[in-house]
Amino acid sequence: MKGRKRTESKEEEEMEEEEMEEEEMEEEEMEEEEEMEEEEMEEDSLANKQRIQRQKEAKKGRQEVGDRREERRLLID
User: Fold this and answer.
1) Interval 62-76: pLDDT, tens
2) Cα separation of 59 and 77, whole Å?
3) Alpha helices in the chain (DSSP H)
4) What single-letter DSSP state applies at residue 1?
5) Phi-psi domain of 27 (left: phi exceeds 0; alpha: psi -120 through 50; beta: other)
6) How far is the C-alpha of 55 from the C-alpha of 37, rounded, in Å?
7) What are the C-alpha distances in Å from 35 to residues 21, 25, 43, 44, 67?
8) Where is this chain compositionally biased, Acidic residues type (predicted)?
9) What is the pLDDT of residues 21-43, one digit of tens each?
């Protein structure tokens, strides 16, 4: 009888350890997912900043071209 109780107790301990290990693995996976999401958000933010900068540069370039055209038009007149 004692041997059976010990076996059951040992099995319960092993099951509890397995459950704890699974929970730890799930937590680690969740943390990794969160880190990846944060990295993606940072990359998206950087990409947006770069896109905005390119748009500003393109607008400035178009403005400069327009200014030169206006200068040439005035010189011709």
Assistant:
1) 999 989 998 888 888
2) 27
3) 2-76
4) -
5) alpha
6) 26
7) 21, 15, 12, 14, 48
8) 10-45
9) 999 999 999 999 999 999 999 99
